[in-house]
Automatic annotation (TrEMBL), chain A:
It is found in: Cell membrane. Keywords: Cell membrane, GTP-binding, Lipoprotein, Membrane, Methylation, Nucleotide-binding, Prenylation. GO terms for molecular function: GTP binding; GTPase activity. It is a lipid-anchor. PANTHER family: RAS, DI-RAS, AND RHEB FAMILY MEMBERS OF SMALL GTPASE SUPERFAMILY. NCBIfam families: small_GTP (TIGR00231). This is DIRA2 protein. Displays low GTPase activity and exists predominantly in the GTP-bound form. Its main location: membrane. One of its GO terms (biological process) is signal transduction. Belongs to the small GTPase superfamily. Di-Ras family.
TrEMBL record, chain B:
GO terms for cellular component: plasma membrane. Residues 174-410 form the Ras-GEF domain. Pfam families: RasGEF (PF00617). InterPro entries: Ras-like_GEF, Ras_GEF_dom_sf, RASGEF_cat_dom, RASGEF_cat_dom_sf, Ubiquitin-like_domsf. GO terms for biological process: Ras protein signal transduction. GO terms for molecular function: guanyl-nucleotide exchange factor activity. It comes from the Eukaryota. SUPFAM superfamilies: Ras GEF, Ubiquitin-like. This is Ras-GEF domain-containing protein. CDD domains: RasGEF (cd00155). It comes from Pyxicephalus adspersus. Keywords: Guanine-nucleotide releasing factor.
């Protein structure tokens, strides 16, 4: 059976309500909404370039509550890169990332070769800020991962976040940009796909 | 899942999508939903947790909440929380909410449609007021939400079943354990079915409601076991092992019959009778004569000729507890229902009602005493129990034949 080895899987973790889905939806669909719907598990697929060919970027948006430890372990073991999101308005949400980071270390072993991005979201909420960006940076240094502050609401640093994460991947070249030639092929493929097949 | 063979420590925790069963408590961390500590039952195949699949099954009600994955044409998916009885339009509302379609309504006039896509690519467009659809889906079918013009471009998800490693669970488990775990699980599922579900299933047009989830799950499981038997046999590449496997399945069927679990018995025999399995001439020839004879006896018992005469004789000799072959009860009920009118000149056809009640009463009789098989709690026992409750199967007949021809090419 065909194995989808071509997929590059990014998993987004973080406490409930920090804006994981908002970041993902802002990136994938370019939309933002104020209302809150707790996520159980969603996965979005996008075509990106990888080692000069096309591959699928799979972004898995996980639940913020800790009710499915087995699901979490599976997501980690299947994931190639991780985004750990906290909200700059909640110190607690940064604390909650620690066990997740530890679990990634435990399952993946050598974390230094795995792209991990620590993300402080809601950077637009200056009034409610509980954490300075220096605090996030310090944790990122300790965890030997990259760090960024974002705002899904203001669309600040969202695309950069995903691009930066892919840049961290050293085992293959992955990029959001698809070079011209391939994208034409892709377009053609999509065009063909859109046509009805009479069996 | 594909990594499972490489990660033995994870094997037990492997969550396969598209499988059934088990209960989990959803404790939402946000304040708004905090008072709601209601149980959410992840319906089949959507979430599997080893710890909860070991818990005894509880009957489903229409108001129960379940998790369900809905796919997009590009195989992205969202997981929604839904009542088991939710209508198709309710499901679509949750999906569009999640995808934030509501915010761009200006540009988006076109409503989404919900489609069930089977593993072989067959599509069924679901009507907006259809309800309780989750339990009616095929084993490896998925729900897709899309625009009407995307309908013909929908492709099924890639098959998730891979070649099992040489020492896969099926080869390690003893036929007796296999049979007893099957019977114990099917007894649980059978016990969850309310008598009225049989009536509702057949009379759903008149009764105007369909709360038959538990019955549908049992039917689904019956077909799952069938497909599992075919899948395991066809995924076994070594010829000698394959013959061993046939032996094991025949033995298992025999013990299920002894347990008076005729549902598992039928399912296993039908799985072995699948055209793609029965055509493996070389494999069957290597089977010892004793097993060949036993199997042909079993085939006689499941033979539908003379309205399942041999099965009916066998079951009439059994004393409760019995797990009957449910599809036959439904067939009998359907004949009773369609063969005579419910009202004659505005009066109720009492004779018909009596006949239906009599048939439903046989179910009561079969369950009038408890089936007890499951007592051991050793780790291997628990592993076996979890294995039996979470089969991974292929339900695509074309793929079955493809595998079959690879194992034994046709003679010409």
């Amino acid at each position: 059976m065909p194995e989808q080895s071509n997929d590059y899987r990014v998993v987004v973790f973080g406490a409930g309500g920090v804006g994981k889905s908002s970041l993902v939806l802002r990136f994938v669909k370019g939309t933002f909404r104020e209302s809150y719907i707790p996520t159980i598990e969603d996965t979005y697929r996008q075509v990106i370039s990888c080692d000069k060919s096309i591959c699928t970027l799979q972004i898995t948006d996980t639940t913020g509550s800790h009710q499915f430890p087995a699901m979490q372990r599976l997501s980690i073991s299947k994931g190639h890169a991780f985004i750990l999101v906290y909200s700059v308005t909640s110190r607690q949400s940064l604390e909650e990332l620690k066990p997740i980071y530890e679990q990634i270390c435990q399952i993946k072993g050598d974390v230094e070769s795995i792209p991990i991005m620590l993300v402080g979201n809601k950077s637009d909420e200056t009034q409610n800020r509980e954490l300075e960006s220096s605090e996030g940076e310090a944790i990122a240094k300790k965890w030997k991962c990259a760090f960024m502050e974002t705002s899904a609401k203001m669309n600040h640093n969202v695309k950069e976040l995903f691009q930066e994460l892919l840049n961290l991947e050293k085992r293959r070249t992955v990029s959001l940009q698809i070079d011209g030639k391939k994208s034409k092929q892709q377009k053609r493929k999509e065009k063909l796909k859109g046509k009805c097949v009479v069996m | 899942m594909r990594d499972a063979p490489n990660l033995p420590q994870l094997e037990g925790n492997v969550i396969r999508l598209h499988r059934l069963v088990e209960t989990a408590e959803l404790r939402l961390t946000d304040g708004s939903a905090a008072p709601c500590s209601k149980q959410v039952k992840p319906l089949f195949r959507h979430f599997r947790r080893i710890d909860s699949c070991l818990q005894p099954r509880v009957a489903f009600r229409g108001s129960d909440e379940i998790f369900c994955r809905v796919y997009m044409p590009d195989h992205s998916y969202v997981t929604i929380r839904s009542r088991l009885s939710a209508s198709v339009s309710d499901i679509l509302t949750s999906v569009s909410e999640k995808l934030q379609y509501s915010e761009e309504q200006g540009q988006r006039e076109e409503p989404l449609i919900l489609v069930a896509v089977t593993s072989s690519g067959d599509k069924v467009l679901l009507k907006p007021d259809d309800g309780c659809i989750f339990t009616t889906l095929g084993i490896n079918s998925h729900l897709f939400a899309c625009n009407r013009d995307e309908l013909c471009s929908l492709v099924p998800l890639p098959e998730e079943v891979q070649l099992p490693p040489e020492d896969s669970h099926i080869h390690r488990i003893e036929a007796e354990d296999l049979a007893n775990h099957l019977s114990a699980f099917h007894w649980e599922l059978f016990s969850c079915v309310h008598e009225l579900e049989f009536v509702d299933y057949v009379f759903h047009v008149e009764r105007g409601r369909r709360e038959t989830a538990n019955l549908e799950l049992l039917l689904q499981r019956c077909s799952e076991v069938q497909h599992w038997v075919s899948t395991q046999t066809l995924l076994c590449e070594a010829p000698a092992r394959r013959t061993q496997l046939l032996k094991k399945f025949i033995k298992t069927a025999a013990i299920c019959k002894q347990n008076q679990d005729l549902l598992s018995f039928f399912a296993i025999v039908m799985g072995l009778d699948n055209g793609a399995v029965s055509r493996l001439r070389v494999t069957w020839e290597k089977l010892p004569g004793k097993f060949k004879n036993l199997f042909s006896k079993f085939e006689n018992l499941t033979d539908p000729c003379r309205n399942h005469k041999s099965y009916r004789e066998m079951v009439s000799r059994m004393r409760p507890p019995v797990i009957p072959f449910i599809p036959l009860i439904l067939k009998d009920l359907t004949f009773l229902h369609e063969g005579s009118k419910t009202f004659i000149d505005g009066l109720v056809n009492v004779e018909k009602m009596h006949a239906i009640a009599e048939k439903v009463r046989t179910v009561r009789k079969y369950r009038s005493s408890q089936m007890r098989l499951d007592t051991d709690v050793s780790p291997t026992h628990l592993q076996n129990k979890a294995y039996v409750r979470q089969f991974q199967v292929i339900d695509n007949q074309n793929l079955f034949f493809e595998l079959s021809y690879k194992l034994e090419p046709s003679a010409q």
